[in-house]
What does this fold into?
Amino acid sequence: MDQIDMNEIVGKCHMLFVCLDSLRYDAALGEQERGGTPVLNRYGKWRKCQAPGNFTYPSHQAMFAGFLPIDDGVRDMKKREKLFFSEDIGMGRKAPEGAYLFEGATFVEGLRRAGYETYCIGGLSFFDKRTDVGKVMPAYFQHSYWNPSFGCKVKESAKNQIDFAVRKLETLSAEPLIFLYLNISALHYPNYFYQEGKRRDDVETHRAALRYVDHQLGRLFGAFRKKGDVFVICCSDHGTCYGEDGYWYHGFNHPLVNTVPYKHFFL
It folds into this structure.
């Protein structure tokens, strides 16, 4: 894939970062190939990448610092594609070609300093603001939102999150530029209720959850397109296991946890 130049995007395009929390690469690839995700398929194929962490909290801390999933097969960290780059991380003071050099502790803060209005719509408990840990990452944004209907135990969570996002976008003008982060919780456990008759999560209920989320995303993309040019980052923060090799879920290193889908594109 050709390297894009984030310096031609920051300050010119709205931005949307969609994290399909816990989505594993093989499930995403399978639905891509069978046509189960027509909305996401319109915007190119998934890239096979390595996750920056093995559960939500460390992975997001890395991503917000500019360390997005790295393409599988890259063996030299300095050769990874970089969209955002901080001069304060011991990798040199000059941004690599195509990367946006940001100021601040996160690229979210860097975008705010560049004139963006920053928004977060949470899903997992790390974004719920009900505990001290749950307040950490929402505090990176000027505006952050969460309510119980966005959580992973709610079957309609993605619809509720995207309904909220669309209503919010309708109240915002095209100025200033918008950066919206959306943490989709539907792929996370539990997801057995996305397939009739199931009483336990498995890779098929995980894939059914992805099809459900894809069906919802079209409305979000449509609402954003009305604002002008939009650059989208869409990925998973980590994968998850459903009994493979005796492993369940995530928070440990296993190929199915460490391998994630990633893509970026323009609307």
The CA atoms of residues 126 and 134 lie 4 Å apart.
